[in-house]
Amino acid sequence: MNVNGLRAAAKKGYLPWLAGTAADVVCLQEVRAEEAQLSAEVARPAGWHVSYAPAEAKGRAGVALLTRREPDAVRVGFDVPEFKASGRYLEADLPGLTVASLYLPSGEVGTARQDEKERFMAAFLPYLVGLRQRAAAEGREVLVCGDWNIAHREADLRNWRANRGNSGFLPEERAWLGRVFDPADGGFSDVVRALHPEQENGPYSWWSYRGRAFDNDTGWRIDYQVATPGLAARAVKAHVERAATHAERWSDHAPVTAVFEL
Predict the structure, then answer these.
(1) Is 158 within the bounds of a domain?
(2) How confident is the model at residue 79 (pLDDT cuts 50, 70, 90)?
(3) Residues with catalytic annotation?
(4) Residue 252 marked as a ligand binder
(5) CA-to-CA distance for 33 and 58, rounded, in angstroms?
(6) Contact assessment for residue 232 and residue 191, using Cβ atoms and an 8 Å cutoff
(7) What is the mean pLDDT of residues 137-152?
(8) Does residue 261 have a known ligand-binding role?
(9) Is residue 156 part of a domain?
(10) DSSP E strands: which ranges in 30-118?
(11) Residue 1 domain-assigned?
């Protein structure tokens, strides 16, 4: 779940949602706060072990992991110094599973933000491949949950024709995400799409606050659960927890929830 600022989300409905979820693991993106800036009930909710990776740039990015049981190990960032303290990647080891929270840069065509996104993608795919290989050697599965900021297919974006030149739906971005899902390359599976292969509209997970995008379901599917094939094969259902009304939203994103039989 991209919370679009955890302090703001906590005032709008995040805590009741967390209290009601049956999830074993919750991955948060765009936390935009350090732990010391959060109230105790938000920073360390009862019943959860919480790990944070705040961004070095104050008020930006930030990811977190909440797990019902204490992780065996927690790692911040991946093997590139530029992104070590960027608040964009955090992973934890649980029994038989490495789970990660990812906030891939959003980008903007023709700006330094797009350059940053492209550098991140170039560095992150080799890391993913290595992570999958290391996990396989240890008999582990991998699940990377987060805001990937790319709509992979036309079915993942309502107004795809109008966005072909915009960051998030550029041909090179979509091709890169295709490599993540290529069995001969990244070797990961798109859990939600595998369970809903014929759905033509989403299920979307982000809607602009502008206009009536949410009411008209004019959204993007940019939040993914990306799993190694062995784990993906155990997914039995997945859905986007879309709010009933615009007024009940506590972020511009919605939680993407999957259930696995282990």
Answers:
(1) yes
(2) confident
(3) 103, 147, 253
(4) yes
(5) 7
(6) yes
(7) 98
(8) no
(9) yes
(10) 49-53, 63-67, 73-76, 89-94, 97-103
(11) no
